[in-house]
Write a structure and sequence with these properties.
By secondary structure, the chain is of the alpha/beta class. Helix content is 35%, strand content 15%. The strands form two sheets. It has a five-stranded parallel sheet with strand order 7-6-5-8-9, with helices on both faces. A four-stranded parallel sheet has the order 2-1-3-4, with helices on both faces. β1, α2 and β2 form a beta-alpha-beta unit. It is globular. It binds phosphoric acid mono(formamide)ester. The site of phosphoric acid mono(formamide)ester has 10 residues, from α2.
Length: 299
């Protein structure tokens, strides 16, 4: 029984196979159908991940259900374990779960339902990481020695955690920049900390991160939006430092005029909307991997 919970469970070959499979789905060169019953359980807010899993589930013909946390018995004190146990008892095969606990899946190991991690606290966001790798691969066709700058609120970002690990494993060179308070020394095993200007100048991929105020003890009191933008954001001025071929990524939602200037969100170098589209196909590949038990090599 396969669970998709962390990028750390995959070899480079497996990641590349998942990317190739996602690209084949996107090009209409492959299809996968299932009658699996899938429940989407989002205990934290989501627009992209929740609805792109729904779209992926629709495209593979799955029967999918949305667990509404707000009207559920979570309000009566039901634990995560009991909510998921109930979904298992009702006959669900797979639960796509987003939860504020970075290690929530540890509570579910004895259950007989497959888990897809839709984002775990500040821990992991493996489906976002797969769509990010797909986006980079579509652009460049390789990872080896590609310079990817991860800029911003790094230590609160599950996207950063998954991406720094996977980019490093795939042979990319990771550059970090952002406020010192949002950086932990142990990230240096994956890349090099530098100024925002230098990172933007050197990078092939400028990956901006959302400021995750909901995870800040001071709820952002240490910066005004404008000060953050000027010191750590992709301003119009910094945009002109980027290499001609470099691209902008952001997992979104974007705080416009904070992480990057409003007009850069949909500019020609931006792949932010493409990331959202790619997410549907990356999640189809994830569903196939979880359901079929093996990724088909031929397509
Ligand atoms: N990137 C991402 O996870 O977006 P959502 O929070 O909208 O799902």
């Amino acid at each position: 029984m396969r669970n998709f919970v962390s990028v750390e469970q995959f070899t480079n070959e497996e990641i590349m196979t998942l990317i190739q499979r996602a690209l084949a789905f996107q090009k209409g060169e492959a299809s996968f159908k299932t009658d699996a019953k899938i429940v989407n359980m989002f205990f934290e807010s989501s627009t992209r991940t929740k609805h792109s899993f729904e779209m992926a589930e629709h495209l593979v013909g799955a029967n999918f259900f949305n667990f509404d946390v707000g009207s559920s018995s979570v309000n009566k004190g039901e634990t995560l374990y009991d909510s998921v146990l109930t979904m298992q008892a009702l006959g669900m095969d797979i639960a796509v779960i987003r939860h504020q606990d970075s290690n929530y899946m540890d509570q579910l190991v004895n259950l007989n339902i497959q888990i897809i991690n839709g984002g775990s606290g500040s821990g992991q966001h493996p489906s976002q990481s797969l769509l990010d790798m797909m986006t980079i691969y579509k652009e460049f066709g390789y990872f080896e020695d590609l310079k990817v700058a991860i800029i911003g609120d790094i230590n609160h970002s599950r996207v950063a955690m998954s991406n720094m690990y996977l980019l490093n494993q795939l042979g990319a060179e990771v550059l970090f920049a952002g406020p010192n308070d949002y950086f932990e020394r142990n990230f240096e095993q994956y890349g090099t900390l530098m100024s925002v200007d230098q990172a933007v100048q050197e990078a092939d991929v400028v990956m901006m991160l959302r400021v995750q105020l909901e995870r800040h003890a001071d709820h952002g009191a240490s910066f005004t939006k404008d000060r953050y933008h000027q010191e750590y954001g992709l301003t119009r001025e910094r945009y002109h430092l980027m290499k001609d071929h470099a691209i902008i990524m952001h997992p979104a939602p974007v705080n416009r005029d904070v992480e990057l200037a409003d007009e850069l969100v949909e500019c020609s170098k931006s792949r932010i909307v493409a990331q959202m589209t790619n997410g549907v196909y990356a999640r189809m590949a994830i569903l196939e991997w979880v359901i079929a038990g093996q990724v088909k090599e031929e397509y």
